[in-house]
Design goal:
Low-confidence stretches: 191-210
Radius of gyration: 20 Å
GO molecular function, one term: DNA binding
Protein name: UvrD-like helicase ATP-binding domain-containing protein
Distance between the termini: 23 Å
Order of helices and strands: HEHEHEHEHHHHEHHE
Largest sheet: 4 strands, parallel
CATH class of the largest domain: Alpha Beta
Bound molecules: adenosine-5'-triphosphate, magnesium ion
Number of domains: 2
Structural class: alpha/beta
Keywords: ATP-binding, Helicase, Hydrolase, Nucleotide-binding
CATH topology of the largest domain: Rossmann fold
Mean pLDDT: 82
Oligomer: single chain
Pfam families: UvrD-helicase
Number of helices: 10
InterPro entries: DExx_box_DNA_helicase_dom_sf, DNA_helicase_UvrD/REP, P-loop_NTPase, UvrD-like_ATP-bd
Number of strands: 6
Shape: elongated
CATH architecture of the largest domain: 3-Layer(aba) Sandwich
Length: about 240
């Protein structure tokens, strides 16, 4: 196998903390992370079950699984590889939380009903979904959202929908996908969190981390969940 380039090597050999590899498609993120897992286990002596590999998509998680086999052989099945959402789901369920997921069409209908109840007609579902998701990914609750956008008529309408949506969901024990991350974050929040170290393979090519709550949640996985290494692959 060809050598990693210097930036890839730096990410692969990074020892303590979270290595977030964020780079353009096809630039070698998965390759780097697989090498990294190999180094953590074979050189740094970290037990494979103390390693958590997180991705955004199921495909990327499956790809990691198959590409880890040549690196670790039998040990590869002991590394926890998952999408961040399914890991949060697992965490919440294992803590005994009772809820159903609200997603897709059902989520749209749910928000439409909230809008109907509030008699709001002049906002598109797309705008509402986007704004609510953005708020949640920045850990902004409806009260903070209102303070933030005080005086902006449109955003106050979004805020009212956001507030009613959260209330209605909570009454029915429903969580949307963004809630999975947020709830996992809240669950772990009261524990001490160590410093977060992110590593971009190339500043020029780096993109903004998808979500603030994701990083906070991952950081908590490492400290509270006692995972030695969290890996994020941005796809
Ligand atoms: N340093 C390197 N030298 C030679 N080939 C490399 C190097 N780094 C990555 N590659 C090759 O480049 C291809 C893309 O790598 P990889 O799949 O790891 O990228 P990726 O960033 O994860 O891609 P995607 O965005 O599609 O998930 C692979 O065939 C990989 O083996
Ligand atoms: Mg990849």
């Amino acid at each position: 196998m060809s050598e990693l380039n210097p930036k890839q090597r730096e990410a692969a050999q990074f020892k303590d903390g979270i290595a977030a590899v964020i780079a353009v498609p096809g630039s070698g993120k998965t390759r780097t992370m697989m090498e990294r897992i190999g180094i953590l286990v074979n050189e740094y002596g970290i037990p494979p079950e103390h390693i958590l590999g997180l991705t955004f998509t199921r495909n990327a998680a499956e790809e990691m699984r198959s590409r880890l086999v040549p690196v670790l052989g039998n040990l590869s099945s002991r590394v926890r590889l998952s999408t961040i959402h399914s890991f949060c789901l697992h965490l919440l369920k294992s803590e005994g939380r009772v809820f159903e997921i609200l997603s897709g069409k059902e989520q749209l209908i749910f928000i439409k009903n909230v809008m109907k109840r509030l008699r709001i007609k002049d906002l598109t579902l797309g705008t509402i979904l986007r704004e609510i998701s953005l708020a949640k990914n920045n850990i902004i609750d409806p009260t903070e959202f209102k303070d933030l956008f005080y005086g902006d008529k449109t955003m106050m309408q979004v805020a009212n929908i956001y507030e009613s949506y959260e209330e209605a969901k909570s009454n029915k024990l429903l969580l949307d996908f963004d809630d999975l991350l947020l709830e996992a974050y809240y669950l772990l929040r009261d524990n001490d969190a160590g410093p977060i170290s992110s590593h971009a393979m190339s500043k020029k090519h780096s993109c903004r981390p998808k979500s603030h709550s994701m990083f906070k949640t991952v950081r908590l996985f490492m400290t509270v969940g006692r995972y030695a290494a969290c890996l994020i692959i941005c796809v």
